[in-house]
Amino acid sequence: METSAEKDHSTASVRRDVWFESGGVRCAAWLYVPTAEGGPRPLVVMAHGLGAVREWRLDAFAERFAAQGWMVLVFDYRYLGASEGSPRQLLDIGDQLDDWRAALDYGRSLPEVDPDRIAVWGTSFGGGHVLRVAGEDHGVAAVVAQCPFTDGPASLISRLRSSPLSTVGLIIAAVLDVFGSVFGAKPVLAPVVGVWWMPAFLVSPTAIAEASKLIPAGTRLSSRTARALARFPALGKGLSPTVVTGGQPFRPGDTAVGRDTIWGVMTGSDGGGDSANAIAARLALRLPLYRPGKDIRKITAATLLCLCDDDRAAPARTTARLAVGQDHVQVNEYDGDHFDIYVGDLFERAVADQIQFLAAQFTAAAGR
C-alpha cells in the first residue's frame, strides 16, 4: 500500500512510503522508483541489522542503487522503527526471517518489477538473514551480505573477549526478560552498543561513538539519555555531531519506541526515525544458536560478502572460512571495524563494489 511520495531529483527517483503485511503486522518500507520510463526493472530488497532502523544510513545505499535505474525496497522489521507490532524493541529471529519473506513476496507482486532480477541486501544481523533466506529461496538473483552475522558461537567468543563481566550481565538480563515475558511484563531492554561495563550486545571503547555516525543529522536524544551522557562524559566521547543532546524535549513514550530507557531513545529532526540503542535482552539466549553462515552452501545465486577485517561483532575470519570452496561466493575485504563501512571512504568503496556486482548479476539474469 502506498501512503506518500517524495521526489529525489539527485537520483532521478521517487521514494514512496509503503507497507506490506507480515504475520498480521504491517511493516513500513520505502520504495524507490526511478522516474525514467522503462521496465520491468530489477529490485533490491534491503533491511538493517541488530535493532537498527532504515534511517541509519540505509537510504545512502538505496539512493546509489536507485541511481542505476533499479527499484529499491527498504523496510523496518516488525516491532522496530515505523513498523507495527508489540512489544516494541523485540527482536525475534523467526519473525524477522518471515519479514524478509513477506518483503520478497511484496516486491514480486509489483508490476514494475522483473521477478527474475531481485536481489537481497542485508547488513550486520540482516546480512545473516539474507544468507538464510537466499538458501531457501532460489528465485533470488543475487545476494549482498555486508559485515554479516554468520556464526553465533564465533560472535559469542568475540563478545566474551571484549568484556566477560558485562557478558554475564547481559545473560542475566536475558533470563529476567524471558521470565518476565511469561507473565506479560514489558521486555527488559539491553543496550545494543556500549562500553565494557554495560550489558550490551556489542562492546568496545568506541562502539557508541562509531555507531552514532550512522544516525541522521538533527537526531535528538531523550532528556534521560542526555542527562546520562552529562553524568558520564566518557560515554559521549567521540559522539557524532549529528546527534543533538539538547534541544526541544520530547516524550519517549510518544515515539515509536513507546517507552524510555537510559540506554538511549532518539527521534529524528522531522519527528520520524524513532529508534533506541536497546532491544529485548532475551535475544542473547538465542544468538549463540543462530548460524546462518552454514546456509551459504545452499545458495544458488551469486553472493557478495563484504567483510571488515577488524569486525568484532561479526568476525570476518569466520565468515571467510565459511565461503571457502563456494564458487558462487565473492569475498571483498575492507580495512575497518563493524560500523566503518557505512560512512566515508569505506562506504564509497563498498557501495561501488556492490553496484558493480549487482549490475553484473542483473545483466546475466536478463540474458537467461
TrEMBL record:
GO MF annotation terms: hydrolase activity
Keywords, sorted A to Z: Hydrolase
SUPFAM superfamilies referenced in this protein's UniProt entry, alphabetically: alpha/beta-Hydrolases
This protein's record includes keyword Hydrolase: yes
Pfam family, one: Hydrolase_4
Domain Serine aminopeptidase S33: 40-158
Keyword hit for Nuclease: no
UniProt xrefs under PANTHER family: DIENELACTONE HYDROLASE DOMAIN-CONTAINING PROTEIN-RELATED, POLYKETIDE TRANSFERASE AF380
Family: Belongs to the AB hydrolase superfamily.
Protein name as it appears in the record: Alpha/beta fold hydrolase
Species in which this protein is naturally found: Saccharopolyspora ipomoeae
Taxonomic lineage: Bacteria, Bacillati, Actinomycetota, Actinomycetes, Pseudonocardiales
